[in-house]
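Pilot study result, target chain (183 residues):
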Amino acid sequence: MSQPPSPERLAAVEQAWCLQANGLCARRLPFHYFATVSRLGDGVFWYLLMAVLVAADGIDGLRASLHLAVTGLAALLLYKRLKRWTRRPRPFARDLRIRAWVAPLDEFSFPSGHTLHAVAFSVVAVAHYPVLAWLLVPFAASVAISRVVLGLHYPSDVLAATGIGGLLATGSLWLAGMGGWLP
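Predicted structure:
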């Protein structure tokens, strides 16, 4: 039976992935795409989505938007606490070969707040409006990938944030009486 890889080996592999992904931004088109997606993931996209839901679907859109807002607030509080607790340095702070292509919103890496919010918002929004999956799933995935490519997060930050965001959204749906999602 083979031994699992050591934590040092896993960290080295993850660092290599970060370095390779970060090189994508040396090209103009990938840089602009990922920088734009990341900027939209700061909140702009989600605020616009909430406004569109209210405008397009009235009271039902308002209910969905309030659900998104409450879930977003819970995600914000949770991720800020986790960042203060773990205090993991960002990839560009550990390896000078990795460039931060955009300014980070805070000092620490774990978990990716952008990814946590993108996943949580997407799960909740798709539970209310399944037709939005075609837009939200690729957008959330692009946000997650952008955080590694831009040199701001490790893949494990993004994977953990995906799990945390999914669990948070699922709990939110359960508390809202949508545990089985919409009929």
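One observation from the pilot: Helices lie at 7-22, 28-86, 91-94, 113-128, 133-149, 155-175. A full batch analysis is planned for the follow-on phase.
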